[in-house]
Structure formats: structure tokens, C-alpha cells
Design brief:
mainly beta, Immunoglobulin-like, five-stranded mixed sheet, 9 strands
Length: 156
């Protein structure tokens, strides 16, 4: 008897809560957002030879922070590269290295720089937790690598 009463009471409470939960939302449409704020970031650039300003194909482009590398790209035939991804740290290191030797116009010294969040330009508006799209440009003009020069620039 006691057990049957508790089961009936449970069903009654569940039904009342279900009805109240549905009617509490009202008639207005709502966009529900789960997770955390996000944005799309694009880092693009061109790698050229310093002497001729000709594009350099096959240059490895490393993106990262002081703690870790999070993406590796390579330049195309026009010396261009493009990274598209989610949230980035406040400071992103961009490092370029000639990994194919003399195959694409000579042997070039490595170089690196950083891009900070203040250097990005918003190109598309977002809505809600989507903050939109931000773009930054990092171009490099590479010098030939001398014989006594180390193959790599200092790590970011």
C-alpha cells in the first residue's frame, strides 16, 4: 500500500513538473548556446626572397606559443600560406624555415616573429557567443642562409 502510494505520488510530481517546465518557456523563440565564446582566426601571409621579392615555395610555417607548436603549414607556389582555426593565445609566434634546401630558389635563413591579438582585424561580425572572424597578416622576406649561419632561428 505504502509503495503504491509513493509510485503514484512520483508520477504526479513528474507530470506537474513536466507541465510547468513546458509552459515556463513561453511562446518566444530562444537561441540556446552551450559551451563557451568562440571566434574564427585567420593568419595569412607571403614569403618572398629578400633580394628579388620573388615568392618562395615549400617554406615550412610553424604557428605556436612559447609552450608548444599547434600547427604546421607550407607555402604554395605563390609563397602564400593561410591558417584558419579557433581561439589563439594573446601572442602567437610565426616561424618560417626552409626545409627543402635549394629546391625552390636557394637555401634561406629561418626567421620568426609574433602576432598579438591587437593586430587582428575583425572581418565578420558574430552573434551571441560567436564573436566573428578575425584576420591577421604576417609576411616574411627571407635572406639567403650563409654557410656559417645555423640552420634554424631561435625557437619561439
Amino acid at each position: 500500500m505504502k509503495r503504491g502510494f509513493i509510485k503514484s505520488l512520483d508520477k504526479l510530481i513528474a507530470a506537474v513538473l513536466a507541465v510547468l517546465g513546458i509552459t515556463a518557456t513561453g511562446c518566444e523563440s530562444q537561441n540556446l548556446e552551450y559551451g563557451s565564446p568562440h571566434a574564427m582566426f585567420k593568419i595569412r601571409g607571403t614569403v618572398t626572397q629578400e633580394a628579388t621579392q620573388e615568392p618562395v615555395e615549400g617554406i615550412r610555417v610553424l604557428l605556436g606559443s612559447k609552450e608548444y607548436c599547434y600547427d604546421t603549414l607550407h607555402t604554395d607556389a605563390q609563397g602564400k600560406y593561410e591558417f584558419i582555426g579557433g581561439m589563439l593565445p594573446d601572442t602567437t609566434w610565426v616561424k618560417v624555415e626552409d626545409v627543402d634546401g635549394v629546391a625552390h630558389g636557394g637555401l634561406f635563413a629561418a626567421d620568426s616573429t609574433e602576432i598579438t591579438s591587437s593586430q587582428f582585424v575583425q572581418t565578420e561580425e558574430g552573434e551571441g557567443w560567436d564573436w566573428g572572424t578575425f584576420e591577421g597578416t604576417v609576411d616574411f622576406s627571407l635572406k639567403p642562409q650563409s654557410e656559417d649561419q645555423p640552420a634554424e632561428a631561435p625557437q619561439p
